[in-house]
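Our platform keeps sequence and structure together, in a single record for each protein. Nothing more is needed to write down the fold, since each code stands for a local backbone conformation. An entry from our holdings is shown next, in its original layout:
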Amino acid sequence: MSGNALKLLACIFMFVDHVGMILLPGVVVLRAIGRLAMPLFAFTFAEGCFYSRHRGRRFALILGLGLVTSAAMSFVEGVAQGNILITLMLASLVIYALDALKRSAFAHAWKRTVLSSFALVAALAFCVGVCCFSGLEVDYGLGGVLLPATVRLLDFRSYGAKGALGTLYHPVTVLLLFTIGLLVIALLSGTLQLFSLCAVGFIALYSGTQGRYRLKALFYVFYPAHLALLGAIYWILHPGFLAALFA
């Protein structure tokens, strides 16, 4: 399966999940199916971070959409929330810092290696602070932030490593490390989250290619659009909710 196919599946699973969350909260099976969305998005997001040529633009887009949609959701729910876009924004800080550290270390640029090490520590500390001490309910917590980093964590081959170090990056080791991270999140989040492990089967079919079409912006458009659609349907079905919200 291409990266595009995994993204489309993730969008479908997310839509099913949010139908269950917003419109049919009593139908648990919809929420169970929806557990497959996050792992697919985490995996494809990590791959996108590695191949992206416009990292600053990508980060700014995620941050902007995340702040706007999180603010809207926080207003509706009455609780400060950081949705999946905030989770991925924080993940990108760790991924980019790791990438910079590997590049400088394998280029034997020791001053940049030291600076990159500090950047990685700072990124991790910032993520811990936001997830654990800020009072913001970040989707999937610190585990969700660190999960995308496992995808390329053992990839030293792309930076010039040879021998045993270069062989660490392999589809089997990637899948194993990602699955362990996903299992930890599931065990900390409750029984329903165990369904997320089913997504590993789809990730195992990943071909390593993007796909024929450029769909990298699909998630960023889909996420706020489908929430707006489901929110509008909910307000139509519950006309008193909007009045109570602004009362």
Q: What stands out?
A: The two ends are 49 Å apart (CA to CA). The beta strands are 81-82, 137-138. The longest strand covers residues 81-82. Residues 110-133 form the longest helix (24 residues).
